[in-house]
Amino acid sequence: MTEGSVVLSVRGLSVRFLMPGRRTVAAVTDAHFDVAVGECLTLIGESGCGKSVLASALLGLLPGNAQTTGEARLGDLDLLAVDERTLAGTVRGRRIGLIPQSPAAHLTAVRTIRSHLEETVAALTGTRGRAALRSAAEEAAERAAFPGDHLDRYPYELSGGLAQRAATALALIGDAPLLLADEPTTGLDRDLVDHTVDALRHHVDTSGRALLVITHDLSAAARIADRVAVMYAGRIVELAEATAFFGSQGPRHPYSRGLLQALPDRAFIPIPGMPPELGALPEGCAFATRCGRTTDACAALPRMMNAVACHHPYVPEGTRA
Amino acid sequence: MLELRDITAGYARNAPVVRNASLTVAPGEAVGLLGPSGCGKSTLARVAALLHRPDSGTLLLDGEPVRRWRHRAPRELRTAFGVVFQQPRLSADPRLPLADLIAEPLRATGEGKAAAERLAALTTTVGLTPDLLSRRPHEVSDGQLQRACLARALALRPRWLVCDEMTAMLDASTTAALVAAVEHYRRSTGAGLLAVGHDHVLIHRWCDRTVHWKAPSS
Hints:
The complex is a heterodimer.
Chain A: E1 6-19, E2 23-36, E3 40-44, H1 51-59, E4 66-74, E5 77-78, H2 84-91, E6 96-99, H3 103-106, H4 113-125, H5 130-143, H6 160-172, E7 178-182, H7 190-207, E8 210-215, H8 218-224, E9 227-232, E10 235-241, H9 242-246, H10 254-261
Parallel strand pairs in A: 3-8, 3-9, 6-7, 7-8
Antiparallel strand pairs in A: 1-2, 1-4, 4-5, 9-10
Chain B: E1 2-10, E2 16-25, E3 30-34, H1 41-48, E4 56-61, E5 64-65, H2 75-78, E6 81-84, H3 98-108, H4 115-126, H5 142-154, E7 160-164, H6 172-189, E8 192-197, H7 200-206, E9 209-212
Parallel strand pairs in B: 3-8, 3-9, 6-7, 7-8
Antiparallel strand pairs in B: 1-2, 1-4, 4-5
Helix pairs in contact in B: 3-4, 3-5, 4-5, 5-6
């Protein structure tokens, strides 16, 4: 595959959870985005805005009361339409590698990292024979810079950073064209966040994969992203180039601006109020009650225009004071 | 004045996590404690909040040494401290609705009658809405639960606040909101603060003075 060819194409993806008493929770609504080879798309937003549900939908890991509509194309395959057998046999690990949120909880507590790696190598690459498995597992560890002398340790004996590398090593084994990292840096300290993020970026740059990172850590996003998708109350409200988004031009949606202004190295001012409940979303713009630019127009749902869903977006220019 | 003098503390006698540490926090002062993960800063924060008995060293509260330690210090001293931990999910009883969670310190110290009134003031301070108060922890987001945990820490009007990685799990906007709530409380009461974290930018922005902590050289 060449640079720029689309790996994952999501069109109109929506997820509804059916709750007792005929209530529905609109976790994701009408998401559109692409991820291309050699590119990192970062999905950012407050906790509880539907980011992780979107990731689970792509892997077919949603619970039974979820209904998905729309399309998510991975090559010739529609991830939302295929059955569990196909997902388990050809997609998870093989075409999408998952880097989980809390690696220490994701790994099996009673088995060593070597045993994890050998099992995964055997399942995904068909390597057979003890010696071959052993060397393949060591190779896999090396690719994620996991130190060889820690291979015989159990997950609880690893620090957060090493557990993260072990999980990354597992995700890389299947040579999946798409890597999906769901909050890969939560709970790690700043140096480790930088290290983890740089390592992920390195895998994208050197092996021509596509990377979808889901995070609420804006400084990590600024470090890794080529493009940014901002999610609010289940909808993607802005898609932007990372350089413009984090640079002098700044984001265009008032919510994205608010998020950046809340950073301690910027204004450190929170967005007033709290995000709406996904079970009781307003008719119009979901951000209107927290927004400083609200007018009567905001009672109607804003459509995605020029990659921003807002009636009163900030004008993209560098001249505004 | 909260003074920690020459504190050595840990979980096994022969392997202390913190060695010979000293730290002071003046009333109304905000002190930040920075360090990498695993350096013992959370242990020191637990000692400072009187939740963990140090192996050696003295802890002075307004010049008086803290005595009669059992596993932790006596209750009448501990109630002068409000503590917020890193993971709200682990520090909230999953069976308690948020209203009871926040009022628990009041009930535990025999001030249950004042709970309703205090609850209203606390929820406004931390920015929770009344409809959330009847929910249990699994029905709210991490950010909302941490707001409730902060309200619980403020319930007894502590003179000292210890925030151990309070915002590590939270997004930027919730972080700014919680820090603003802590600062609002400190401005109105003159409480001292010990904020533990690994985010240099945040701690420098938040605190008057920061202490850099290195990993023990054992």
